[in-house]
Write a structure and sequence with these properties.
By secondary structure, this protein is of the alpha/beta class. It has 31 helices and 27 strands.
């Protein structure tokens, strides 16, 4: 695995450089250097891209590591701790890391997360610095350090639409312009409606720091101190900020929220964006300057091989394949750029006087000051005093982090012995970094320790199931994307493995979960955990009412007693979709949709269904159950109350359980578990966690062993076991809270009852199942919120649903685009109001 061990002093990093030089001159055996390259760019590189480097450095192997979404680091504007945590996470991924202008901050280098290359460059007689334009070479320099080597660059200058200036009778912008000229133009060429409201601002800058630096002719740091500190004392800065804040309040300058940046008649932006826009021209910024944005590669401050990592950075930044990964128009070293021919003379004028991030690195304090001025009305002077204090405090925090150990553990991908392999394992998640990353890594370590073939498992977190499945040997999902994966031909049938696995008993799988992974008489995935639908009740509230459940189950009569005694809303559904409502309707004796049949039977107009629907929806009307519009497409908005103040609320147990997220330490805030009430039927529902094997992986057997191992470890992910064998295993029982274990056992028993109705999660299911919910939900909303006649609404919903299903079931195509178009046609033909 790749681990974070903290951070190291910059001084320690420099000492390590000398130490590593002595190591590399003696022996370089089985050293692994890692380079962060996302999967898309990995596909653009030849498999031989590192062959020359490895040949020049015997015993060294270079591995590409997909950094996942760690590359999308929290900005310094999110707060210094969040930002530095994100930088540490990114810098721990690999020895060599790509770094773009939007990722840079004034604190990441102070914290020691990026290695200072200056000593290495000074010792490298073969490096021809004069092949880099000075502005590009210096763009990675500040605080006496060189923090990376560039690959390509772009220039930031004025760009404008001449026709807009002609129409307003304005001269074109040039290097002599001041903030007053910019303000005048922004007001004159802004587009306004008949009421005088600005609809398209006249001016926008993609980099306020670049514009302010150009206007002031100086940076925002004190050059007499080392390490540097901010200096916001320039009196012209306060005047500039006051004008800028006024322009923001007038809406004649602002970020393009919902507006295509190309609509702005006057901008400061990258030259690369002008290549296809012949209606726009460019001009130097004030004081004959331009900003320069650099793309390049840095060495992690935690590398264990600084000298080799530096050599690899040199290799990468001069390698045509890696240079081609960047879309910036100007090569870092000599060569032709990709700027429009008519703008080339301007580039030649701009580049010698261009300034990089180092010259504007403390601007984020000014930006925070501007926000304070606009939002609170304080003066520029007051805002700058606050900003100065904030930035200096951030620097102190960064300096303190430099005293903590930080290492990229390069033995994460071990040297492989004969017959050993590395598995690439995708984990679907929407939270980055994953809150349970360390759990995954520990689980992988435990597996590789007992598996004779798998030496390492790379955990790759992603949020796109198709991309993740395509680029990994096997996949874990917190949901069930089986239809999507099968339709795209990405997964392997598991039946040959299941048929010969002595430890797999399909009859022991709880709740028929295996059937949800079967299509065309084949099993395409392995269920590895369940998240059962439950209720949480406030113990104090129900105890005061004398209605505390004596066990983890209760009847519909017990439920009625709570509804009639507690304050409203008594029950708060907090999950998306209508499943909680359908489950309560089943307990009251109605099945609008009968999931006991395949496919499910639509019963919207059945008298028993209508009676149960009306009874439950009236509870929503009366406020006993918090009702939120289920909506036509979104299937629900925000909950109709606070889950921490109601007597009852719904939930699904698992990593994303509301209660567990609220109290990761196990304190449930005075709430306890109970099942949904039992009545005419026993309603149950669960989410299923699943695992799949890539159809094209050469490591099918290893993947099956690994995902089977995962299914035996539900406690790692706080989910319910998929089988009774695990549920009843004493080692597992010892890890569980007694109440949760009782819920799991009872839930497993419920799924086997003759009166059990297993409800799928209706939000996010396949097109064949989810779209019919639109019409049923609309009927519910119209009755509860509009006072419509329920029977009329349900009859219309049933007609539209059956018509849609008939159309959907008639679709017969293997082409994804054709299938989607035919589904759209079905919806449009059945209900034109949903055509969009």
């Amino acid at each position: 695995m790749l681990h974070k061990f903290g951070r190291c002093l910059l001084v320690v990093s420099l000492l390590l450089i000398g130490f590593s030089f002595s190591l590399s001159t003696q022996a370089q055996e089985n050293i692994i250097l890692t380079v962060a390259v996302d999967s898309f760019d990995q596909d653009r590189l030849a498999t031989t891209v590192f062959d020359d480097f490895e040949a020049q450095n015997p015993g060294v192997r270079v591995e590409m590591i997909d950094p996942g979404d760690s590359i999308f680091m929290a900005s310094i504007y999110a707060g210094v701790d969040d930002h530095l945590n994100a930088v540490a996470n990114y810098a721990s991924q690999a020895d060599i890391l790509p770094l773009s202008p939007w990722q840079l901050s004034s604190v990441m280098t102070r914290a020691g997360y990026i290695l200072n290359l200056e000593p290495l460059v000074n010792s490298d007689a073969s490096l021809a610095i004069n092949t880099y334009p000075p502005a590009i070479w210096e763009a990675f320099q500040w605080d006496g350090g060189l923090w990376g080597l560039p690959t390509r660059a772009d220039l930031l200058m004025f760009d404008y639409i001449p026709a807009a200036f002609d129409a307003a009778g304005l001269t074109y912008p040039d290097a002599s312009w001041t903030i007053d000229d910019i303000a005048n133009a922004a007001r004159a060429i802004a587009t306004r409606d008949a009421n005088g409201t600005v609809t398209v601002p006249g001016f926008w800058t993609s980099s306020e720091s670049t514009l302010f630096r150009a206007l002031l002719g100086t940076g925002f740091d004190d050059p007499t101190t080392f390490p540097s500190v901010p200096d916001y004392t320039n009196p012209e800065l306060a005047r500039l900020m006051q004008i800028w804040a006024d322009l923001e309040r007038e809406n004649v300058i602002r970020q393009p929220q919902g507006i295509n940046p190309d609509q702005f008649p006057f901008r400061v932006t990258n030259m690369g964006s002008l290549n296809q826009q012949t209606n726009r021209m460019a001009a130097l910024l004030p004081n004959n300057t331009a900003g320069v944005d650099i793309e390049g590669y840095v060495v992690s401050g935690g590398t264990q091989y600084p000298d080799l990592a530096y050599q690899l950075v040199r290799y990468i930044t001069t390698n045509p394949e890696f240079i081609a990964l960047s879309f910036s128009p100007i090569p870092a070293q000599s060569g032709e750029n990709n700027i429009r021919a008519d703008l080339q003379p301007l580039v030649d004028l701009a580049l010698p006087n261009a300034f990089g991030f180092g010259a504007r690195r403390y601007f984020y304090g000014i930006e925070q000051a501007l926000d304070a001025m606009v939002n609170t009305g304080i003066s520029a002077e007051e805002a700058l005093i606050q900003a100065d204090s904030t930035v200096r405090n951030d620097l102190q925090i960064a300096d303190a982090r430099a005293n903590e150990l930080f290492i990229v553990e390069n033995n994460a991908i071990p040297s492989l012995n004969s017959g050993e392999i590395v598995l690439n394992f995708g984990v679907l998640t929407t939270i980055f970094p994953m809150p349970n990353q360390s759990d995954w890594e520990a689980l992988a370590d435990a597996f590789t320790a007992i598996d004779p073939e798998v030496a390492h498992i790379s955990i790759n977190a992603r949020n796109d199931p198709l991309e993740t499945m395509s680029n990994n040997d096997c996949l874990y999902s917190p949901g069930n994307p089986v239809n999507l994966l099968v339709d795209n031909g990405l997964v392997l049938s598991l039946d040959p493995f299941l048929d010969v696995d002595p430890n797999f008993d399909p009859n022991a799988v709880i709740g028929g979960a295996l059937g949800q992974l079967q299509r065309d008489n084949q099993t395409w995935g392995l269920p590895v955990g369940l998240s059962p639908a439950v209720l949480w009740y406030n113990e104090a509230t129900l105890s005061n009412l004398g209605l505390t459940p004596q066990a983890v189950t209760w009847s519909i009569n017990d439920f009625d007693a709570v509804l009639s005694s507690a304050e409203n809303p008594t029950l708060l559904p907090i999950e998306l979709g209508n499943t909680p409502w359908l489950m309560l309707m089943a307990a009251y004796g109605g099945l609008p949709i009968d999931y006991r049949t395949t496919p499910p039977t639509i019963n919207f107009t059945d008298p028993d269904a209508i009676g149960a629907i009306q009874l439950v929806l009236d509870l929503g009307k009366n406020g006993d159950i918090g009702y939120r519009p289920l909506g036509q497409v979104t299937m629900g908005g925000a909950p109709a109350g606070d889950p921490n103040t109601v007597p009852l609320h719904t939930d699904r147990l698992g990593l994303l359980s509301y209660r567990f997220l609220q109290s990761p330490d196990g304190d449930t805030g005075g709430y306890n578990l109970v099942t949904y009430p039992q009545g005419m039927y026993t309603p149950v529902s669960y989410n299923i966690q699943t695992a799949f094997i890539n159809r094209d992986t050469p490591y099918r057997d290893a993947c099956y062993r690994w995902i089977s191992y995962i299914a035996q470890q539900p406690q790692t992910f706080n989910v319910m076991p998929i089988s009774r064998a695990v549920l009843e295993n004493q080692a597992y029982v010892a890890t569980q809270d007694a109440r949760a274990l009782d819920v799991y056992t009872t839930f497993a028993d419920f799924t086997r009852r003759e009166d059990a109705i297993v409800f799928p999660r209706t939000f996010g299911t396949g097109l064949g199942d989810a779209l019919p919910m639109i019409w049923l939900n609309r009927a519910f909303d119209n009755y509860v919120l509009q006072g419509a006649d329920l029977q009329t609404e349900l009859a219309l919903a049933q007609m539209l649903t059956l018509d849609y299903q008939a159309c959907y079931n008639a679709i017969n195509t293997q082409d994804t685009a054709t299938f989607q178009q035919q589904v759209n046609d079905c919806v449009s033909n059945v209900d034109p109001t949903l055509a969009q």
